[in-house]
Amino acid sequence: MSKRRGGVVWSSGPEAQQRCERCGRSPCVCPPAVYPLPEKQTARLGRSRKGRGGKTVVTIEGLVLDEAGLMALARTVRRRCGAGGTVKDGVIEIQGDIRDRVAETLRALGYRVKLIGG
Ligand SMILES: [Zn+2]
């Protein structure tokens, strides 16, 4: 007995990969984000030496973004800088001693940037 039902085949094409991380839908059905505009925000860029073998990370804080917004921004910065990174306790951490590059990237995105610490 054959069980043919419909002709719809769900595949993992490019569309599936673009599914929104917040709502899980493609196209996204999230309400518009309510973050202040980048040019109204100041990113505070610090440099921190973590325990892991003294590796330096660039920290980005002071932004008015929720977790999803921070994740999205971290992803953009990672891609543009070709570096690894993560979001921890509301702070974006980008791996490497590349604060100038991160600052440049944020400015290109429209954010104001302030360097803090060493
Ligand atoms: Zn969405």
Can you characterise this structure?
There is one protein chain. The protein has 118 residues and is α+β, with helices and mostly antiparallel strands. The protein has a domain at 34-115: Translation Initiation Factor Eif1 (2-Layer Sandwich). Helices cover 25% and strands 23% of the residues. It has helices at 14-17, 67-81, 99-108, and strands at 42-49, 56-61, 85-88, 91-95, 112-115. The protein has a five-stranded mixed β-sheet, covered by helices on one side. Strand 1 (42-49) and strand 2 form a beta hairpin. The protein is globular. The mean pLDDT is 85. It binds zinc ion.
Structural class: alpha+beta
CATH topology of one domain: Translation Initiation Factor Eif1
At CATH level 2, the architecture of one domain is 2-Layer Sandwich
Q: How helix-rich are the residues, as a percent range? A: 10-25%
End-to-end CA span: 72 Å
Could you write a compact summary of the structure shown?
It contains 3 helices and 5 strands, in the order αββαββαβ. By secondary structure, it is of the alpha+beta class.
What brief labels describe this structure?
five-stranded mixed β-sheet, binds zinc ion, 118 residues
Task: Summarize the helices and strands and which ones pair or pack.
Blueprint: H1 14-17, E1 42-49, E2 56-61, H2 67-81, E3 85-88, E4 91-95, H3 99-108, E5 112-115
Parallel strand pairs: 1-5
Antiparallel strand pairs: 1-2, 2-4, 3-4
Zinc ion is lined by residues 20, 22-23, 25, 28-30.
